[in-house]
Write a structure and sequence with these properties.
α5 packs parallel to α10. By secondary structure, the protein is α/β, with parallel strands linked by helices.
Length: 280
Amino acid sequence: MAKKTVTMAIAYDFDGTLAPGNMQEYDFVPKVGMTTADFWKETSSETVKHNADRILIYMKQMLDKAQAARVSVRRENFVDYGRSVRLFAGVTDWFRRINDYGKSKNIIVEHYIISSGIKEMIEGTPIADEFKAIYASSFVYDHNGIAVWPALAVNYTTKTQFLFRINKGVLNVYDDHKVNEYLPQDERPVPFENMIFVGDGETDIPCFRLVKEQNGHSIAVFPPKKKGAKARTDKLIAEGRVNFACAADYSAGSSIEITVKAVIDKIAADSALKALGKIP
């Protein structure tokens, strides 16, 4: 009997997970004449002042500061800023290695981004084409192609809706009807137990918990050389929020590669056992 092909999904945060720091800090913030510290300090101050969502405020800050500095904010400008983002070690060929390993186990691995960062910047990175969908904050552009308003703001709680979109196969952001329709568990394209969520911090905790509590696997990553970073992710394990903590080094043979391959092995074994249970 031919083995059934199984689909699994790996969803990643971006900033601090696949790349060090925040993507705005590489080129955009210096371009508008600010230091990283001042940009985020002012963002925090405005968030408190207006009792507002931090993501919406930082997006407004980007547009306001760009206008004041006479910096262009067309879509292609944001994409260009993304080209300067530095990725963690091993990320560029990570997807090929994981996809190949999945195929060897009759598993199709789909990759997704769920990030509070800027979608257009992520699209400028060399790994953009590796993702089936990129869910991240983005802008609406006017008739002159200039960013004027948030099209989507992804914060720590709204991140979870995209896991359900992946689970149900409803990938369009605008479709809020199908994603809320009842769909039997055995008809969902990517069951939660076939999901991995990879993130780095507090804004990822709702996703960590959702995936873990639905029998999927959550991985917290930490900067390999940052003092005290591992202790923070170990705390997430102790609190039952994640399954694993790994250094954000995606090189061949790394801790996260070993962990993800082990999860792939488990998904393959679970699928084989389910198939045996269905044989008359």
